Each structure stands twice: as structure tokens, then as C-alpha cells.
Amino acid sequence: MTELVRQGKAPTILVLGMIALSARFSNNEVFYNIPAKERGLPYVRHAERLLNLHDISVTTIQSALLLGAFWTGEGNPTLESVFVSIAVQMASLIDLASCPAASPIEKETNIRIWWSLRMVDVWASNGVGLPPRLSKMKPPPLPGDDITYNRDNNGAMDSSSKKSIPRSSLLSEMAKLNCIFAEIYELHEDTIKGQMGGSFIETRVTSLGLQLDEWYAALPDHMRDTPENLARFASVGLGRLFVAVYCGYYHYGQLLYYQFLHARNQDEFLSTAAAYAVRCNAYSAGLCEIIYAAHSTPRCDVLYNMVGHVLVVASTVQIHTLLNSSSEEEIATTRRRLERNFEIMLRLDNLWPTLSMCLLRLRIFHTACRRSMKETFLMDRWMLRFLRDFGRAVDERTDMTSEEIPFTLTGIGLTSDHNNI
After folding, report:
1. Where residue 49 falls among pLDDT bands split at 50, 70, 90?
2. Rounded CA gap, 266 and 375, in Å?
3. Residue 387's pLDDT is what?
4. Which residues make Cβ contacts (< 8 Å) with residue 289, sequence separation at least 6?
């Protein structure tokens, strides 16, 4: 695609969609005095006018995905879901991953679009409380090696190169993790519906936790979460994709074990729940640290809007740790993370309209903690919406006792300037 853009051969609608998303990052003088959050609107409006639903093609599928991504950043999950639904339906109609391709690189592109669409489908469906559509379909082969694919700008991939592609590319790993995420989503739904007893919930959590463990254990050494590997992928232009893999891994882990934080405040805080609460905190910490590492590594800073959502969830886990820990070292570390998270969210707020919603959600959670720690971390419908519906507002929690917990952002190490969330 990069080469097509340079040659002026890329479809106009795709170019407009990419500009709509990327203009907020530009230093070009054409955007002087235009707030970053407002720069993409003229381009997305133009792209929407060009979207032709009579053209059932790969280009239209890609266009719908770009338009959906734009409206995610605008905090409009309904429009996002509409555009993603268009892409899903068209991909199903033409059997995207299996349709005839003119070359191996085109075939690989179709596979990558299908898997990207499947991952977006899970996130977009979660955001509006609907079931994903592609999760139940038989998947195609996983994507091939990212470096080989990105280096091929001539529209052809020879067979010898294809045979040597390892099935452990970063995009493949994201796809594997997304399959686990879909199951975690189903677990949360079943939990709040009361369709499972405690022992069955524990069994499913254990199984999903094992899947996450096995995923990490199966990784080759060069794909593990280490500073050296991050720098290595950054050197070939894949640093941000590497970070995205681990943002998913750590976020899905904190979601899986999140409901056991509630048990830590209850009499039934048994050994299994205790271990799960510890794991939730570990995943939350891992998420924070990989994002910090990304922002301190050249060409790795992650500035897409979903970072705000996962950091809000991670911050609530850190709040729980802060209010329950007796370790001065742990308290100091937690305060540092909370302040750093808020600083990153403020930076993202300059870029994405949806970040105001993220900050509002954190404020509402903060208020709930002040009112009562006993109910705040309970896995119920309110909590499910908080964890899942990232593009929607959440109401103040009303099922609270009048118990007050002294808690301010200043008290956790943030400056007074940060108290307005």
C-alpha cells in the first residue's frame, strides 16, 4: 500500500481514510491552528461520500474498516459497529480469505484483512454489547511473517520466501490472543447472568488462564516481552505492533481475573481467589510497564485511542492495590503507575475525542471507590459495562452503601492539577 500511495495508484477512499486517522499526528503547516482532534473530520466525510455499497470488494472492506476505526476514536461506537458490520458482511459474501488471488502477496493480504477484521469484530461487538460475528466461522491460515510481507512492495512474493515464513508473526500472535479474548467476553456474560456456579466459573477461569500461559510459553525467545526484543522489532519498523501484542496479552489477563479483586474485600477470600487477584494485579502491572517502555523507546510510542481504555482498567486495578496494600514499596510503585497512566491519558486526550470518555469513566470509578470499596469491584452488569463498553458512558454506581473511603488523586501521588477527572 505504501508503494501504491507513492505512485499515486492507491484508491482515493483508502488514502482519505488513512489521512482521517493520521492527520492528528501531523506537523504539516496545512494543519496549523487546527486542533489535532478536529483534523480528520473533513477527510472522513469525503471518504464516506465515496463509499459505494454496490462495490462488494476488498477495497470497500478496507474502507469500511478505516471508517469504523475513525469513529471509534471519535467515541461513536454505534457508527463504528455499522461500518465494521458492513466489512464483516462483505468479507463473508466474497469468502475473503479463500477467494481467488492474482498473486501470493494478494492472497496474504486477504488473509491479513480477514484476521484484522475478526479482531476488530470482537472489540467492536463488545463495545456495543453485541455478540461478534466472525468468531464462530472457520478461520483461514494465520498470517505469515510480518517483515517479509512489509518488505514486499512489488506485488509478488516468491514461493521460496513463502515456504520460509514462520507461523509466529506478530499479527498471528495478536489473532491467537484475540480468540482467547472472545472466550473471556463470553465468560463475563455468563457470570453476570448467573448461569454458572462458583466452581464452574473457577474451572473456566483456570482453563482460560492456562491458555494465556501456554500462549506465552510457546513463543520463541525473540518474541518474549523484553527490552531487547522491543528494540529489535523497533529497528525493523515493527515496534508498535510488538507493543500491541502485549497490550492485548496483559489486558486480556487483567480482564480474566478482574472479578476476583472483589473477593479480596470479602470473607470468602480463599486461596484460589487470592491467587487470581494477585495474577490480575500482575497483568495490570505488565500492561503499564510495556506502555511505559514503548514511550521510552524510539519509534514505539503507542498513541492509538484504545490505549486510553486499557489504561483506565489497569488504573482501577492499581487503585485496588493501593487501597489494600500494606507494603510501602508497593504503594510507592502503584502511585507512580497511576500518575504515569494519567499523564499518558492526558496526552492521548489531545489527539482523540474518545479520551474524554475514558477520563470520565475513571472519575466515576474514583467516586465509586470513595463511596464503598465493598461493592465497587463486584462483577455485575455495571462492572461489565465498565470493562467492556469502552465507547459508552457509564452511570454513577447506585447500588452503594453510604460508607465513605478517604481517597483523592492527590493522596495517591498525583499533583493538584490532576484532580479534575
Report:
1. very high
2. 10
3. 74
4. none
Q: Which cell is 334 given?
A: 502503584
**Counts for the chain of helices (H) and strands (E), in that order:** 18, 0
Residue corresponding to grid cell 517479509: 148
User: 241, 145 in Cβ contact below 8 A?
Assistant: no
User: What is the per-residue pLDDT for 381?
Assistant: 67
Q: What is the pTM of this model?
A: 0.88
**In the predicted model, is pLDDT for residue 373 greater than 90?**
no
Distances (CA, A) of 176 to 187, 250, 279, 313: 17, 14, 21, 22
Tell how far CA 210 is from the center of its chain. 21
pLDDT of residue 315: 93
Distance spanning both ends of the chain, measured CA to CA = 40
Is the pLDDT assigned to residue 402 strictly greater than 80?
no
Q: What is the DSSP letter of 395?
A: P
Query: Is the pLDDT confidence value at 40 over 50?
Result: yes
Nearest to 289 by CA among 272, 302, 277: 302
Question: In Å, what is the CA distance from 196 to each residue of 200, 233, 387?
Answer: 6, 43, 20
Question: Distance (Å, rounded) from C-alpha 133 to C-alpha 118?
Answer: 8
User: Which are the contacts of 343, defined by CB distance < 8 A and separation ≥ 6?
Assistant: none
Q: How far apart are CA 78 and CA 128, in angstroms?
A: 7
Alpha helix (H) residue ranges in 41-192: 41-50, 58-73, 77-93, 104-128, 146-151, 159-163, 170-192
